[in-house]
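Bench notes, afternoon.
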Amino acid sequence: SYAITQGTVALNTNYVLSYVGASLTITTRPVTITADPQTKIYGTADPALTYHITAGSLAFSDAFSGSLTRTAGENVGSYAITQGTVALSVNYALSFIGANLGITQASTVTAAGNSSAVFGDPSVALTASVFAMAPSLATVGEGTVTFTVKSGTTVIGAPVTSSTVSGGVASAAFSLSGVVVGSYFVEAVYNPGPNFLGSFDASPGTLTVSAAPTTSSVTVTPNPQQYSDPATFTATLSPASAGSPPLSPATSVTFRVGTQVMGTVPLTVVGGVLQGVLTAPLVGPEPTASPASPTGQMAPVAHTVTAEFGGVNPNFLVSNPTTTLTISREDARATYTGALFVSTSGTTSSQALITLSATIQDITATPDAAGDTTFGDIRNASVTFVNRDLSTDIATVPVNLVSAGDTKTGTALYNWSVDIGSSDAKQYTVGIRVNRYYTRDFSTDNTVVTVAKPFASGFITGGGYLVMSSSAGSHAGTPGLKNNFGFNVKFNKSGTNLQGNINTIIRGGGRVYQVKGNAMTSLVVDKIRPVATFNGKANLQDITDPLNPIALDGNATLQVAMTDSGEPGANDSLAVTVWDKTGALWFSSKWTGTRTARDQLGGGNLQVHNATTTTASAAAAISSASAEASGLPIAYALSAAYPNPFRGGTRFRLELPVASRVNMAVFDVQGRRVAGLLRGAVEAGRYDHAWDGRDGSGRDVARGVYFLGVDAVSLAGDRTFSMRKKLILVR
């Protein structure tokens, strides 16, 4: 209230002016403001809280002060907007009409994560990220996520829901029961809380179930093992199973040696792992169609053995393990079956062709098998004929089967050209070494072959037939059928060349074959008994159709041995052996398993005509036909020692044609006796001996050069023998 004064109010002097005052009252100016309603998205900042004058007005330049406020809270909802500190001066009567701030749900984005597991895992954690969309800056911490796993459009298993989303991340365990290896879609759907809107992934995540790892191994026992002997192959694979329901990583295993399949066996659970065991002989398909070119997977060297698992379940990673198997050579036995007596081509010739032949057997075909029943293919052997006197190889030749149905026994052949020089007779110590897949190199197999200048007037003739009973070879005669023959062999008048021929007919396998020999290389006729052997070359042909004979071989080797038991020939006996040009046994008239034996004639007659030899030494060399027939030596002989040089011991053979008094000992280089090996009377025969490098007291002697000495005198006193062989002992 303000006093009203006279101020400047006046009259002229003609008046007496009196003034009675009063008051001026100024009242407050009414103003009404109304708050503006506001909204925001959850997780964003508050908008500016505004208002406007809905009644009255401000005077002059007056203005409001302060700001509006709202009820506290950030969750979705409606919050009152209050006057807060908004005010005017005391000159105003300010009225406030409120409004509300509304918080709405934030939109979200859901992204399924990628997960991985190994087949057999019980479960896998599926994850997803849930983000609030701009402009919201909130971190999602409410609601859940439901995961669905699909293969294409097919739902796998049951959907799973996470616990409450925390920090924008959701996780749920998904059971892998029945889930196999593969890649799957993972769909994630956000189940919102009160402050967010739900969402799902635009691009599903991926669940990758990879194959379960396994551990595998393969072993072979025994190792090393001989060719053709059984070996046990063992493969293991773990784990034995995995997954729900449980699955096995494989069902079988195939064992290979190199490229050769040894066999396939099923896998069984043993001690918590899968195991496959196969016992199989180390033999193969070799020789193949070409015996000279075997596949070589059973060769006596180191080979890679592989276990190849079959029926492999794709839910597992299965590797094929390998190991190394060393195959050693199988034992063989060798029997010399070639010529023991060979004549030169004439009485004045020093040259001769020795038919060297041997029967080679897998040890399972011999009494030495000692329970070994698994055999190989003897064609995988080769034979080296050795000149033991000079310790040099004569030739190495292949081994061919005696019978196509028997791979345990084969023969080897080589025609050896020798020259005895100015001698009337010469002896050769021939050894046999078996090579390649088999091994044999023993002095006990040595044979002494005598080459001598022949009788000038000895000759043989004969004709008739044998009745086949145990013929052998690729063209063996059929039992019960006849093997006809006819021959005539002699030297020319001057004794310089052999003349004659042989013709024999063989019936076998429904075919008829003819062997014609007209190139004789050797004729040996005993000077005392009617026993003879001749060798030569022959032509072989199939004459089943007599109008169209078929040539089979033009360079076959022929050997015929006979005994003339007197007239009329009913007890005469004959042995015919033919080898083809490859050295394979083509025909044996009577096979014993290792050689051709003489067989009594079924009909006909043989005549062996003896004569006096041209020189005394030749006569001595080719005498004693009875010794030949009985297998006794024909002359004194001491083989070369083998091995030589040697370490642990060396072997050698002494051959006595007649009962003799023998002194065998080892001497040092000064002639002093080191060890006695044999002393006393000994019957005729072949005797194998050895020296182990010790003296007579059993003590090891020093390394160095020694001499093996043999002195023999026949008990009849008419024959003597003395021989020295050098021995080299190394330590």
